[in-house]
Amino acid sequence: MDFNLKKLTSDAGVFFTRAVQFTEEKLGSAEKTELDTHLENLIARADCTKNWTEKIFRQTEVLLQPNPSARIEEFFYEKLDKKIPSRTTNGELLGQYMLDAAKDFGPGTPYGSTLITVGEYQIRLGGAEREFLQTSAINFLTPLRNFLEGDWRTISKERRLLENRRLDLDICKARVKKAKQAEAKAAAEPDFQETRPRNYVLSASASALWSEEVDKAEQELRVAQTEFDRQAEVTRLLLEGISSTHVNHLRCLHEFVEAQATYYAQCHQYMQELQKELSRYPNSFASNANPSTSATCPSPVSSATLPGVSPPCLASTSTPGHRKAKVLYDYDAHDTSELSLLADELITVYTVPGMDPDWLVGERGNQKGKVPVTYLELLS
Fold first, then answer.
1. N or C: lower Cβ tally within 10 Å for the chain?
2. What CA–CA distance (Å, rounded) separates 233 from 286?
3. Which secondary-structure segment (H or E) carries 300?
4. Long-range contacts of the stretch 238-246 (C-beta < 8 A, 24+)
C-alpha cells in the first residue's frame, strides 16, 4: 500500500480549513460567496426533480409489486447483477388452483366445468399482468432508476465539488482581507523610534513581508476564483440537462400509460368473454330450487289426513313418469351416455331407480341420453 504521509497531512489541513470556514459562515462571523440567481434556481429545480422522481419511483414499485419481500429480493438480484427469476402472478396461481380443483370435483359436473373455464381465464389475466409488469419495468422504472443512480449521482458529485471550491474561494478572500489589514496597520503604526534606526529597519522589513503576503494571498485568490468559476460552469451545464431529463421522463410516462391502457383493455376483453362463457351455464342457486322442491315429498303426517289420497311425489318416485322439460341453456354432451341440448327446446325427461338425483334421462325423438337437471325447467 502506497502511504503518502505528506498528501494525507495536506488533505487533512484543507479539510480542517474548510470546516472552520463553514462553521464561521453558519455562525455569521465569516462572509459567504453567494451563487448567482440562475444557478440557485437550477439547483432548486434539480432538488425538486430528484425528490419527486424518487417518490414516484418508489410508489410505482409498490404498485407493480405490493409484496415487500419480493421487492427486497429483486433489489438484491439487481445489486448482484443477476437475472431476476420468473415469478408466477397471483392470477396464474389462482387459475391453476381452479384447474386442479376441477380435476377432483369432476370436469363433467357443472361446478367442475365452470372452474375449468374460470381458471383458464384467470391464467390469461395473470399472463396479461405479467406482460404489463415487464413492460412497465423496462419503459418506466428503468429510466427513473437510471436518473437516480446515474445522472443524479454525477450532479451531486459536481455540486459537492462546487461547494468545496466556494469554501476555498472564501478562505482566500478572508486571507487577503487579513493580510491587507495587517499591512495597513504596520504602515500606520511603525514600530521604531528616531533614535533607534535598528527598529526602523525591522519595521520596514515587516512591512515588506506583509506586502509579499498580500501579493501571495491575491495570487491564491485569483486561482481559487478561476477554479470556482470553472466548476460553477460545469455544474450549471449539468443542471440545465434536467430539462432533457423531464422530456425523457415525459416520454416514459406516456409509455407507462399506454401499457396500463393495454393491460386494462385486455382484462376487460377477457372478462367479457368469460361472462359470455358463464352465461351458457345455469345459475345453480336459482335452478336447483325447482328440482329440489319438485322432488320433495309432502310430510307423511299431512298425507294421512287425506284418506284415500296418495302423495303425488311418492307415486312419481315409485313409478317412473315422463314429463316435459324446457332447456334453459345449451349443453354439450361429454360422452356417448349424455344428450346434447339446445336452449329453449322441449324434451321428455324421466328418472330411473338408482340414478344420480342431479341427472335425468332425456329423450328427443329417437335420441336418448343423460341430461343435467340444472339445465332444465320441469313443466307440469
1. N
2. 78
3. helix 300-304
4. 238/154, 238/155, 238/158, 239/39, 239/42, 239/43, 239/45, 239/46, 239/155, 240/42, 241/151, 242/42, 242/45, 242/46, 242/49, 245/49, 245/147, 245/151, 246/49
Note the residue count of the chain.
Answer: 380
Q: At 259, which helix (H) or strand (E)?
A: helix 242-279
| pLDDT tens, residue order, the chain (380 aa) | 455 666 677 677 777 788 887 887 778 777 888 899 999 999 999 999 999 999 999 999 999 887 777 666 666 556 556 666 677 888 999 999 999 999 999 988 889 999 999 999 999 999 999 999 999 999 999 999 999 999 999 999 999 999 999 999 999 998 888 888 887 877 776 554 444 554 444 455 666 777 888 888 889 999 999 999 999 999 999 999 999 999 999 999 999 999 999 999 999 999 999 998 888 765 544 444 444 444 444 444 343 344 444 444 433 333 347 889 999 999 999 888 899 999 999 999 998 888 888 889 999 988 999 999 989 998 86
pTM given for the model: 0.62
Q: Is 206:192 a contact under the CB 8 Å cutoff?
A: no
Residues 74, 85: contact at Cβ < 8 Å? Answer: no
Identity (one letter) of the amino acid at 313?
A: C
CB pairs under 8 A, 24+ apart, for 309-318?
317/351
Spatial separation of the C-alpha atoms in residues 43 and 135, rounded to whole Å:
33
* Residue 204, C-beta contacts closer than 8 angstroms, at least 6 positions apart: none
Neighbouring C-alpha atoms within 13 Å toward the C-beta of 166? 18
